[in-house]
Amino acid sequence: MSLLLRNLQRAVPLRRAPLRRTLEILRRVLGVQEFDLAIICVDNKNIQHINKVYRGKNVPTDVLSFPYHENLKAGEIPQPHFPDDYNLGDIFLGVEYIFQQCKENEDYHDLLTVTATHGLCHLLGFTHGTEAEWRKMYQREKQALEELSRLMGTRLQPLSRSLF
């Protein structure tokens, strides 16, 4: 199915074509290539607004995920009953925030990929509210990023590697 990648910000440069290619491979790695997915790239002002409206936190953040299928168990692939159910949901990437958090030795575009992977894991039911939940999510992110790294010749590490 389709991958919608929209860049609704002008704060930082974004190379959409390489990001799209990487995300298509990531969808295959996670086994969700047959599902629609929207990834919307926004600036700090917009991610802060969305974060305030939906999470009650009036600060910018790196990623917000809005799953189409609610109440999935961690790692569960949705089982659609209707054609319209072939939708994973929406991921908002706070690309300006991600850019600002990027350390000197980190590649911004790699960090976008890692952050999108984190968001995709949330769409697949993973959370990190407890250490046990975090461990499950960390392991899935790590597996996905290792496979993606093998396919693309990179070395990507999970976003949530230092939560607990």
In terms of DSSP E residues, the strand content is: 15-25%
Through-space gap between termini: 36 Å
* Class of secondary structure makeup: alpha/beta
The order of strands across the largest sheet is 1-2-4-3
Number of strands: 4
Describe the protein's topology.
Layout: E1 3-7, H1 16-30, E2 36-42, H2 44-55, E3 63-67, E4 87-94, H3 95-101, H4 108-123, H5 131-152
Parallel strand pairs: 1-2, 2-4
Antiparallel strand pairs: 3-4
Structural summary, described in words:
The protein is an alpha/beta fold. It has helices at 16-30, 44-55, 95-101, 108-123, 131-152; strands at 3-7, 36-42, 63-67, 87-94. β1, α1 and β2 form a beta-alpha-beta unit.
Supply database-style keywords.
single chain; 164 residues; alpha/beta; 4-stranded mixed beta sheet; 15% strand; globular
Quick structural overview:
This protein is of the alpha/beta class. Helices cover 44% and strands 15% of the residues.
